[in-house]
Amino acid sequence: MIRYFLGACLLLIALQPGAAFSEAPPPTVALSAEQRDWLAAHRQLRVGVVLQAPYAQMDRRVQKLSGAHIDLMKALASALNVELLWQTYPDQAALEAAAQARLFDLAPGQMQTPAGLRQWLFSDPYMRVPQLVVGARVGGAAVDFEQLGSSDPVAVRTPSAVADYLRTSYSNLNLHGVDSERQALQNLLAQQVKYVVIDEAQLSRLSGEAEFGELAVVGDIGFPQLLRVASRRDWPELSGLIDKALAGLSPKQLDELHNRWVQIKYPRLSESPGFWQNLTSLFAVLLLAAVACLFWLRRQVRNLERALLQARHALELREAAEEALRLTQFSIDQSTVGILWVNWDSHVRYANRAAEQMLGYPAGGVVERPLAAFDPNLHMDRWLALWKRARGSDGEPLSFESTLLRFDASTLPADVSLSFLRFRQAEYLVVYITDVTERRRALAALQESQARLQGIAANVPGMVFRLERPHAGAEVDFAFISDGSEGMVGYPAAVLQAPDRGLRSLVYSEDKASYHGSQDLAFANDRDWHWQGRILTKSGEQRWADIKAMARRLDDNSVVWDGIAWDITDNKRIELELADSRAQLRELSAHLESVREEEKARIAREVHDELGQVLTVLKLETSMCELAYAELDPGLQDRLNSMKRLIANLFQLVRDVATALRPPILDAGIASAIEWQAQRFEARTQIPCIVQVPDNLPALADAKAIGLFRILQEALTNVMRHAQAHTVALRLALDGDDLCLTVVDDGIGFIAQPGRTASFGLVGMRERVLMLGGTLRLESQVGEGTTLTVHIPLA
């Protein structure tokens, strides 16, 4: 009860009559000289209006027009100082027919449509008329159309844009079409429908009748009518003047115009049945519950503030949506993609600015032209076929390439896409045009580059290929193989590019391990790839191949390997033959060295045994002669002593020769031989020689012991001749299955000169080591001495 009383009081205050719109002072409009001259030439303007209350209605008694549009146009005429000639029409169809015949110059209360844009210029909206949802006053609450079902019928006038909007936006609604708004409200009172959708102006006209006094507004569908002033398209000056005059109207004047003619007029409270009884009860309740009412009022104020904030937020959202709509239209006009709306007859109904610029037409020059004017191949038969395909494609666009004809007879390479669209009970094909001049030029350049690459790759004496990996962890595939593959291995490039083939299918079985090892290492570290090995051709012939590929990382983080595979069979055959020849020479050298060492040992034994026996007999004979004849001749004693000394020297010379040919110490083992050789070196050169040998050295073959001893002799000879060392260190040690000999001096060192032939001493040592199956490493720096390391396998 309190809610009803307060709502009635607020309505009584809100419905107090205000100043009439016509009584407001005319707006001040600042006009340019050209606009004033134009108005001076057009003092009378014909205005076309539809007789529909409350916008425009004729008082038959005084023959006078009144309504929202009449007051608005009078205010604009007063601001522009022009005379209006009224043309009235019974309905919108009659108005549009008169517009085609140019029977009037401007018409208020028009809504902007694609068809109207081709005929009229529209002003900014001056009035917003919402579409309201009306229900019963008792128990009426806000309604959400998303939650309505078939048991909640809704009445709406048909045909109309509002009915189309409801069918499109709310497929769950049970819509009942009626011929007029009055019939819809009557159906609501008769409970044939639960809600009625009606615009605010018509509800304002009908709400003053007692019959509809118990109805209330319970919602807004969010699809308002934006009323504009439409003017002749060939008079753009008039459109600009109307915009300036509308801008001169204050928001207060427009609100007064809306409140006077469009806002809903509820019946006075005194006219409601049982008003005084309810008012008496209300005062009694207020007297008994003043404190409770005060608390309720405070809560209601908070609710009203919250509702006001929500309404303000909704208004901001609506303004943002309108701004987004304007931005969308601006984006379409400024788009780089040409957009055409085409009817079934292939004539253009709308073209954005990009399409006009692409085709070289002036503004508005594309509209109403058939598509055959731009693409002669789009004759009517083909267009109808495309229309049928696009209409049945369930929203999937149709795309094709075309060469369009511009206004200046030049051509435009373009990609054309067709999309079917229904808009306000009309069907269109939206044509999207994209200029692909640069893309086709780039494609031609790419094709030429690929042809040049194919030509180069075809003339390379080998197989050119490219491997690609799109990202880390992905498989590496052949992106390109040149036609040289057929001449090299007998397979065409298409066969080798298959996922299960590639070069790995050609690798000889014994070389697959080395192939995959080198390839996996290169792919894992994004490094260059190099491999040599045997492959099998299509005919089963075994060939040698050398594969080299250079890794390169691209901007998209993918990695490619550009490479070439050469047939090196002839070179490899020569290399193997040369290696075999070297091996044979090395074996021959080893055999000769072995024979020479054996000959030396034989000669050493013969020298030691034969000459030793002869010298011993000679020494005995000399001693016997001394005992028998020395006392007979004093001079003979001196001669015999001289002969003894010569025999002793000859004994030492024989021992030295035998030792030089083959030191007997070798029979005691290589460790003892090294120690003995170090002592002889130190005695001859006075250079301290530090020796380190193992105690328990396994038995070493005689050939390896002699070879290692000869290497030591040559190393010490080089130290004595060239090193100018102060100390020499010799070390013999076991290193796994190898025997390691290290010779270190602190001499002047040396640096090997590139291209300079090594000395025969080093060559001899290296060859001896190779014959023994070992390795030799020589390290030296100027002023830092030299280190010689020899590894010989025990086995």
UniProtKB/TrEMBL annotation:
Residues passing through the membrane, by range: 275-297
This protein's UniProt keywords: Coiled coil, Kinase, Membrane, Signal, Transferase, Transmembrane, Transmembrane helix, Two-component regulatory system
Transmembrane helix listed as a keyword: yes
PAC domain span: 398-448
Coiled-coil annotated spans: 571-598
Gene3D superfamilies in UniProt: 1.20.5.1930, Histidine kinase-like ATPase, C-terminal domain, PAS domain, Periplasmic binding protein-like II
GO molecular function ontology, one term from the record: protein dimerization activity
Superkingdom assignment: Bacteria
Pfam families per the UniProt record, alphabetical: HATPase_c, HisKA_3, PAS_3, PAS_4, SBP_bac_3
CDD domains: HATPase_UhpB-NarQ-NarX-like, PBP2_BvgS_HisK_like
UniProt domain Histidine kinase: residue ranges: 602-795
InterPro entries from the UniProt entry: HATPase_C_sf, HATPase_dom, His_kinase_dom, PAS, PAS-assoc_C, PAS-like_dom_sf, PAS_4, PAS_fold_3
Gene Ontology CC annotations of this record: membrane
Endpoints of the signal sequence: 1-19
Stated name of the protein: Two-component sensor
Originating organism: Pseudomonas turukhanskensis
